[in-house]
Amino acid sequence: MSDRPVVVYLTGWCRSGTTLIGNLIGELPGAVHVGELRYLWRHGVLGDGTNDTCGCGTRVADCPLWSAVLRRLGAPDGVPDLLARQERLLRTRHVGARLAAGPDTTAARADLERLYDAIAAESGARIIVDSGKYPAEAAALCGSDRVTPYVLHVLRDPRAIAESWRRPKSYIPAMPAWRSTAYWVAFQQASARVGRAYPDRYRRLRYEDFAAAPADTLGAVLADWGLAAAAPVTADGTAVLSPNHTVTGNPDRLRTGPVVIRPDERWRTTAPRATRYVAGLIAAPWLHRYGYRLTGGGPTARRDTDAPVPR
């Protein structure tokens, strides 16, 4: 492995299990999970976020790691420009443009590279796990020659996600099924587009497959990329999580100690029929592609039509 930092970027739509998967990869020797890094500027500098607790338990602005990273980058100088470039260049609709060479792609990539370089320098980590989930960030990053990027596209049945979004969290309101599923479709399409452009750097993992066999499925991805011989989870699905430095994300990122990973199919009985119907109707053209049944039962055997199945 080269001296360049390795960045494992997790993409896909929210409520798909990226927080847990990111925390697991962050347990590898020499790895740090930084959560949804995109929000560092708002939470760590501007202080205008609603989810501004670092995974270590302090406010992001007070965290020893993030305060050192921000000092190294000269924050708050330049933060308004960084946020403006995020909005202008790194939305989901910008994936195609970020896969193409040009000054805007170079500028967006340089912002990410400087940030990852600072994290590597201050943390001493050789593997940085970013669960930002924005496919355009993954697209810009894949052309980097300053970091070694890998993209892990995590997806989950959109009906399970619609049920999760039906309930608000302390830092984010609820979302109707039609909206969450429209985002799901857009994020899957955009993430798959990155995979078609960079098949060697991309792998896709269904949350259902991961939850059923976390050691095998995640371990295959890590071994395929040469990052680890095995995943930091036992064959029976038990992992021990340490405090982390996630900028933001699902509150489950704050859990430490032993965690048992098991399939969660509760949505099949708790989701109202209307939620399941709306989500299934909007996502129907993509359900079969990703190995989900339209009616009844669980997911079919693992499918991967856009990239090699992790070996």
From TrEMBL:
Species assigned in the record: Actinocatenispora rupis
Which InterPro entries does this entry report, sorted A to Z?
Answer: P-loop_NTPase
Top-level lineage group: Bacteria
Pfam families, A to Z = Sulfotransfer_3
The protein's name: Sulfotransferase family protein
